[in-house]
Specification:
The chain is mainly alpha-helical. It folds into 2 domains: about 45 residues, no CATH class; about 55 residues. It has 3 helices and 2 strands. The protein has a two-stranded antiparallel ribbon with strand order 1-2. Strand 1 and strand 2 form a beta hairpin. Helix 1 runs antiparallel to helix 2. It is rod-shaped, with a radius of gyration of 36 Å.
């Protein structure tokens, strides 16, 4: 919508070299943020609209998510291991007490 309106304004503007060059760039899909355009009789720049996030942004968000996921997983694994070690230690102490009591009876 914006490109169509800009092309119409460039066609209606004076036939300056800048307007003609901008029209050619727009038709080829090569408008840049530094290309001048004639809008309402004034020369301004056409801002290039971002097509989405870049590879760097995607890698950064992936690594941040991976880091948070690893931290949470590590915490829960530590808690589970600590709990199971405590349970195993108490079971082993109970077995030692039973074994000592059986040996003392003999």
């Amino acid at each position: 919508m914006f490109q169509r309106r800009l092309i119409l304004q460039i066609k209606n503007a004076s036939s300056s070299t800048t307007a003609t060059n901008q029209l050619l760039l727009l038709r080829k899909g090569m408008s840049s943020s530094t290309s001048p355009a004639v809008i309402n009789g004034e020369i301004s720049t056409v801002k290039k609209v971002s097509g989405g996030s870049s590879l760097g942004q995607r890698l950064l968000s992936f690594s941040a998510g991976l880091g948070v996921g690893l931290a949470v997983t590590s915490y829960f694994l530590y808690e589970e291991l600590a709990e199971s070690n405590e349970k195993f230690s108490s079971e082993l102490r109970d077995l030692d007490r039973r074994l000592k009591s059986i040996e003392n009876k003999k």
